[in-house]
Amino acid sequence: MIPDIDSVDIAHLASGDTLAIQVYKFRGATPGKKAYLQANLHGAELSGNAVIYQLIQFLSELDDSQLQGEIWLVPTCNPFATNQRSHHYASGRYNPYTGTDWNRIFWDYEKDLKNQSQPSIADFAKSQLHLNYQQIQNNFRQQLIRRFQDLKQSESKASGLPFEDHYRYQLQSLCLDANYVLDLHSSTNQSFDYLYCFQGREASAKYFLLNTAILLDRYDGDAFDEAFMKPWLSLEKQLENLGKVVKFDLEAWTIELGSGMQINPDSVYRGVRGVKNYLVSKGMLDLQRFPLIQTASKTVQFFPKSKSQKYYAKQGGMLQSRVLLGTWVTSGQLLYQLLVFNREGCLPQLVDVHSEDSGLVYDLSSNASVNQGEYILEVLTQPNPV
Ligand SMILES: [Zn+2]
Prior knowledge:
The structure is a single chain. The chain folds into two domains: 4-306, Zn peptidases (Aminopeptidase, 3-Layer(aba) Sandwich); 308-385, CATH 2.40.50.100. Helix content is 26%, strand content 27%. It contains nine helices and 19 strands. Strands 1-2-4-3-5-9-7-8-10-19 form a ten-stranded mixed β-sheet, with helices on both faces. The chain starts with a strand and ends with a strand. The model has no long low-confidence stretch (mean pLDDT 96). Residues 42, 45, 103, 185 line the site of zinc ion.
């Protein structure tokens, strides 16, 4: 298959240069569902770009009869963040103009309806009870896309739009009609491979063949995956309240591949394997030996997002003897020591900090030097195996 390659301008700069993103569109011989993948929304999170590169190579060698539907891939989807630096370091997590996290800027249809005092999703659900699943999906999607296009048209007004709004419309316009949205991230700090899963979609998590998932029992709709899924999950809930149980064939996943500012080959391998296995399991790709044999017996440990616990420095100092990434700690176990200096004529001190709960240490700060209140590590607690 040879992809269509489209370029989408996202910012015209003072210098006259233009920032753009590039979309690789693979279309199968038969029409079907659409999968949308992007990487590097946060500037330091690089591994997803290598995953997309390998997927482009792989898909290019397939026959178009092996793909049903379309796969769209967008590497380096936020050039503004990717190119951001402070000395040698790339943070690229926040828009430097507004301080907003680049993954908290997206348009949530449900919130928009409330702000506009438009009929709610509950009202829409009531009007659709006599229709079948596919008709409801089509109607809701049309309504959502119509509203999105109205908003996007405000770009042509003389008053213009702030950059974040303009950017979010460009990115979201690529995936509003998708079935599956895969947003490839890494930790901005240090982490291992895991994914975020919406409630009601747990059964599909195992297709990615990762051991750990964070269950989104709490979200506000501003992140890319949330903005895609939240209106649909809300519609499912409203229909269920009215006695009609429907699960749309729509999913969104944020896949976290290792640490920031590096490309870990193991994370890339697991990312590529997981995406292929997922797309085969969803009936889009036809590949020999897939779904992989281990899929059927794969267990994923789900940790509720609301129960994850961040540790912040209670005083300034230097971290040492910190637990390793992936350690299962028990309550009271030593998490790290803080080497604390002072200006009061006293000797320096070594302060032990212990875990409040048992859980899995899944994210560590990159900087061992911390001021009071700065982030040190995060622990996932209260797992539910599925
Ligand atoms: Zn990220």
